[in-house]
Amino acid sequence: MIERRPWLDLISHLVLIFGVAMVALPIYIALVASTQTAEQSALAPMSLIPGDQLWINLRAVLSHGADGNGSGSPVARMLWVSLVSAVMIAIGKIAISMLSAFALVYFRFPGRRLFFWMIFVTLMLPVEVRITPTYKVVSDLSMLNTYAGLTIPLIASATATFLFRQFFLTVPDELAETARIDGAGPLRFFKDVLWPLSQTNVIALFVIMFIYGWNQYLWPLLVSTDQTMYPIGVGIKLMIAGGDSAVEWNMVMATLILAMLPPGLVVVLMQKWFVKGLVDAEK
Length: 283
Description:
Distance between the termini: 30 Å
C-alpha cells in the first residue's frame, strides 16, 4: 500500500514547475525578441510583450541573413548545411556502429576483444586531443569547406558501437543457428534478423546523433572558411560577434528560433520510438 502525502506531491509539482520555467523562460524571451524591431529588442530592460515583426524578421534572416553583424550568408543556407551535416553524421554513425558491433559479436577472429577495448578507450579521449591531427588529415585530403570534411571525421562513434554490441549480445544464439541452417549468410542474417530487431535502437540513436550533429560548433568553425559552408551554430556566433557594428538582437533571436525547430521536430515526431528504444525491457 502506497501512502499518499499531499505535501510531497505539492513539493514535487513546485520543483517540476520551477524546472519547466527555467527552461521555458529563455525560449520565451528569444521568441518575444524575434517579434520586435531592432530598437525594441536593444532596450534594457526589454519588453516581454510580443511585437508584430516576427514574419518580417524571419523573412529577412532567411533571405539575406544579418549583413551588419559579420554574417552575410542567408540563414536558409546555414540551416541546409546543418541539416545535411546532421543527417549524414547520424546515418554514418549508425551504419558504422552497427556493422562494427555485428563484427565484434558474431565473427570469431584473433584480437576481437582487443579491438573492442581499443574502440571503447577512445571514449576517454576528448575531442580537443584529436582535433589537430584530424584537421591536418582533412586539410591534406582537400576536404575543407566540404560536406565530407564536416561529417566524415565525426561519424565514428564508440558509444553507439558499445550500445549495439550490448543489444546484439541479448539476441538469442538460436536465431543465428537457425539462420545458418537455412543457408543465410552473415549479411542476410544482419538484414533479415538483426536490422528489424534493432529498429527502435536505431531510431533512438538517430535522434541523439542528429542533435549531436546539429549542435556542432568547434569542428565546423575550423574546417569551414567559406560563408556558404557555415552551419547554423557558427552563423549565430558570427551574428553576435560582429565587431564594431551593433548587434541586431531581433535577427539573432529569430535565427535562434529557426535553429531550434528542426531538432525539436525530430524529437517530437520520433518521441514514441525514441523512448521505446531507450527503455524497452527486452533489451
